[in-house]
Amino acid sequence: KCENYSLGVPIDEIVDVLHLQNDKISKMPTTIDTIGQQYLKGMVNYATQMLALVDLPALLSKPELIVQEEV
User: pLDDT at residue 1 above 60?
Assistant: First the structure.
């Protein structure tokens, strides 16, 4: 559920599920494009990698991403 509508996002594979505490989420580095930052919530360490946390409601509410509307 995103805001006032339900949506689905097809994915190929789920590799892992993480349960994160807010204090483990770092701010995005300033080297990230400022336009893209509006769709990212932060970064988190995972094993030997850094993962970016996507703000799905912000990303999926872009009007240009609406593909099929219920009439």
Answer: no
